[in-house]
Write a structure and sequence with these properties.
heterodimer, A: alpha/beta, Rossmann fold, formyl-coa transferase, domain 3, 2 domains, 6-stranded parallel beta sheet, 3-stranded antiparallel beta sheet, 37% helix, 15% strand, B: alpha/beta, 17 helices, 13 strands, elongated
Chain lengths: 403, 404
């Protein structure tokens, strides 16, 4: 029988908060898994982040569509028992607490694998489950600092700058998603459950597609350093200004010949200072100056971009987020997904980048209110009576709120 | 049942080059898949990237460990026939040419799915398989420009800043890996083959964990703009200077209370101007003055981070250089820097795979292939070609090899 969705029947218990873990479980939900998100009584702290409407965080909505929600006090044994009972019948557990917290709640891998040996448990943290930094509080930018990412952003003689988006969190969520699915695939082919230990710092460190190797293989002769708006090694590869607009232009290999001709600078093609990639890198100021002068002579960024793109020279305008959302290409590919939230109404967020020909559509999904599915899960999944549920409510083990 | 890793037995035919595609197939090889990389006679572009020793690129080694190598001319009919025969035997086909190139080689999804209807084909591109921009030549930074990522990086009002690493390429490789294992899982559950369209643009755009939603939900009142050392929308979240060094401080959740106490400004706790991260951002100058004042009383950045993190549980970190990261005790203990022993290059240090499975705690020993290293082995053992036939393909220039 062909499954209705890719993760038809896969059950996920999700203890994660903020972005990295929730992004992972959102992807699982988008591909058909049943995700039950367990939040503390005060809610996932992401519910504090903007924008807000009637107490409802649009930030939370973006990262939690498609999940059922329970709100439990995990410090209480009754709540831990509920979780253990749910995990017995689950395929996946995801959490992104600081290492040690799950153990305090009797929900570490040692405990959970005795409850369900087929379980795939994924822990996402900033620094990993062991090592001297592991118990530090962690956020994306903390991981970026310790991975040597922030040091590589900005002008060489000035303070580093950061990208105003948490690519570490979101892409760590994707890495976790991939590791979980690989482990599910392994389990389907006869392997047991297992624990996955993923961390932002290590994922971010893997983004050095060149720096680590370059530093080591050059025996320290090449020290990676931030280089502002142009590339550290290659030229031209950087951001230029055309009138008031910034443009990115890159021309390596054969593209350099095309660019020199386009700029009317055939003289540079026979000049030994620009003979190959290494020479152009060594004389990058002269190369960049030639590109800038040409852009100044054109004066109109749209025209300059058209000339470059018609000549198949890699180039792009630096777009703002609103410009991206309005761009015809973005629209043609439905890159912006419009959610319909019960409080917010329509809300625009980025679409999942995973596109499957067998499942081309993004499902209709909403994010749960805090504790929205407490009753449903306790009574229908675990068979608790109305009195039992009422008792848990009055003792403050569970709660619910319309946020 | 013993298996050397989670993807053992999965076979992959890999037409990718540079970083995004090769990173995806590297992750697959590291998880035990058998990857056959197909390269053109001159070798793929990454073989020319530094550091180069005896013709061997350290850059290529990093992104191509654990793959077999078939070097053939895809423009020839014989070369395409060999690929079609191999496609019949594999689970996954991967490529990251500009859209349209695979069709020229008779290897677009339509052709591939005819040859093997159960195959999963993953096309990775900068801007996606369709849409007005799709045919443009693409690199990581092009995707960053069109996704609004570059626009969000750098000083307010100044030039945007390039990140000194290809995070778009690498993380798109990881997305492709995630999509492929999903499709493999679907296949073993009874689904068929399918086509995956993974674009850098989509991946990079998804990194706006806040900007798209804030712009939309504020009705356009909050416009995301790069803000250099401080976060655009929430505070305190930014870079600060302590003596000659930089550190980052993130105190947007419960840690705000801890920071306020450390700064001796408990009066802010019930001041409506500091009630939540968004309004704190409107008054962030006042906060930053207090943080800078406190930092001026601390001896150095190490001490500042210690006081913030250890004593007050306020998330903070020093800004480390790449060499400092490589030497850091934490990275050493976790083995984040992996030393690969290459047959020509000797030891090369690279970032290790960040996917850690408890069942397979050891990383597989893998070598990056020479150009065309496995031509004979693949044609003979997997396709049953005779020695004469292989020799003829060599002399006609369809196959070639080189120890680089």
């Amino acid at each position: 029988m062909v499954p209705q969705s890719m993760f038809d029947g896969i059950k996920v218990i999700d203890f994660s908060h903020f972005v990295a873990g929730p992004h992972c479980t959102k992807m699982l939900a988008e591909h058909g898994a049943e995700v039950i998100k367990i939040e503390p009584l005060s809610g996932d702290p992401a519910r504090m982040l903007p924008m807000h409407k009637e107490g409802r965080s649009a930030f939370y909505v973006q990262h939690n569509v498609g999940k059922k929600t329970m709100s439990l006090d995990l410090a209480r044994p009754e709540a831990q028992k509920i979780c253990h009972d749910l995990i017995k019948d689950a395929d996946v557990v995801v959490e992104n607490f600081s290492p040690g917290v799950m153990k305090r709640h009797n929900m570490d891998w040692e405990t959970l694998k005795t409850i369900n040996p087929n379980l795939v448990m994924c822990s996402i943290s900033c620094f990993g489950q062991d090592g001297p930094l592991s118990t530090l509080p962690g956020y994306d930018y903390i991981g970026q600092s310790y991975a040597g990412i922030l040091d590589m952003n900005g002008e060489p003689d000035r303070a580093p700058v950061f990208a105003d988006l948490t690519f570490g969190d979101v892409s760590s969520g994707t890495h976790a998603y991939a590791a979980i699915v690989a482990a599910l695939f392994h389990r389907f082919r006869g392997g047991p459950g297992q624990h996955l230990d993923l961390c932002l710092q290590e994922i971010l460190f893997s983004y050095h597609e060149m720096n680590v190797q370059l530093y080591h293989a050059s025996a320290g002769a090449f020290v990676p350093k931030r280089s502002g708006s142009s590339h550290g090694v290659a030229a031209p590869a950087g951001i230029f200004k055309c009138n008031e607009r910034y443009l990115f232009v890159l021309a390596l290999g054969a593209q350099w010949d095309k660019l020199a001709k386009t700029m009317g600078r055939e003289d540079m093609l026979s000049d030994p200072r620009f003979a190959d990639l290494a020479a152009r890198g060594a004389n990058k100021e002269a190369v960049n100056k030639a590109v800038q002068s040409w852009l100044d002579s054109i004066g109109d960024p749209d025209e300059a971009l058209k000339i470059l793109q018609d000549a198949r020279i890699p180039s792009a305008p630096i777009l703002s987020v609103p410009e991206v959302m309005e761009h015809p290409h973005t629209k043609a590919r439905n890159m912006v997904r419009t959610l319909v939230d019960p409080v917010w109404g329509e809300l625009k967020v980025p679409r999942t980048p995973l596109r499957f020909s067998a499942f081309p559509d993004t499902p209709e999904q909403t994010a749960g209110f805090l504790g929205e599915h407490n009753h449903e899960i306790l009574s229908e999944v675990l068979g608790y009576s109305a009195q039992q549920i009422a008792a848990l409510e009055s003792e403050g083990v569970i709660n619910a709120k319309h946020i | 049942m013993t298996r050397k890793h989670v993807l053992e037995g999965v076979r992959v035919l890999d037409f990718s080059h540079f970083v995004a595609g090769p990173h995806c197939t590297r992750l697959m090889a590291e998880a035990g898949a058998e990857v056959i990389k197909v390269e053109a006679q001159i070798g793929e572009a990454a073989r020319h990237l530094p550091v180069i020793k005896d013709g061997r690129s350290g850059y290529f080694i990093q992104h191509n460990r654990g793959k077999k190598n078939l070097c053939l001319d895809l423009r020839t009919k014989e070369g395409q026939e060999i690929c079609h025969e191999l496609i019949k035997t594999v689970d996954v086909v991967i490529e990251n040419f500009t859209p349209g190139v695979m069709k020229k080689f008779n290897m677009d999804w339509e052709a591939v799915s005819k040859v093997n209807p159960d195959v999963i084909m993953c096309s990775i591109s900068c801007l996606g398989q369709e849409g007005p921009l799709s045919k443009l030549p693409g690199f990581d930074y092009i995707g960053q420009a069109y996704s609004g990522v570059l626009g969000m990086t750098g000083e307010a009002g100044g030039y945007p800043a390039l990140s000194g690493m290809a995070f778009g390429d690498i993380s798109t490789g990881a997305h492709a890996y995630g999509a492929i294992v999903t499709a493999l899982y679907h296949k073993v559950m009874g689904g068929g083959g399918q086509f995956l369209d993974i674009a850098l643009l989509d991946c990079l755009f998804s990194y706006h964990e806040m900007n798209v939603q804030v712009f939309d939900a504020s009705g356009g009142a909050q416009v995301p703009q790069r803000s250099g050392h401080q976060h655009a929308f929430v505070a305190p979240l930014g870079l600060f200077k302590c003596k000659e060094d930089y550190l980052i401080i993130v105190a947007i959740g419960a840690q705000w209370n801890n920071l306020v106490k450390l700064l001796g400004r408990e009066d802010w706790l019930d001041d409506p101007r500091f009630a939540n991260p968004l309004v704190r951002n409107e008054n962030r100058d006042e906060i930053n003055v207090e943080i800078e004042r406190w930092l001026s009383t601390v001896s150095d950045v190490t001490e500042a981070v210690r006081i913030l993190v250890q004593d007050n549980h306020v998330p903070a970190a020093p800004i480390l250089s790449v060499p400092e990261v490589m030497e850091h005790p934490h990275m050493q203990q976790r083995g984040i820097v992996q030393t690969v022993n290459d047959r020509v290059f000797g030891d090369v240090k690279i970032p290790g795979t960040p996917l850690r499975y408890s069942q397979y705690p050891e990383r597989l020993e893998l070598q990056a292939p020479f150009l065309g290293e496995h031509n004979e082995e693949i044609l003979r053992d997997q396709l049953g070609y005779s020695a004469e036939k292989i020799e003829a393909l060599k002399t006609s220039g369809v196959l070639s090899e080189k120890n680089i």
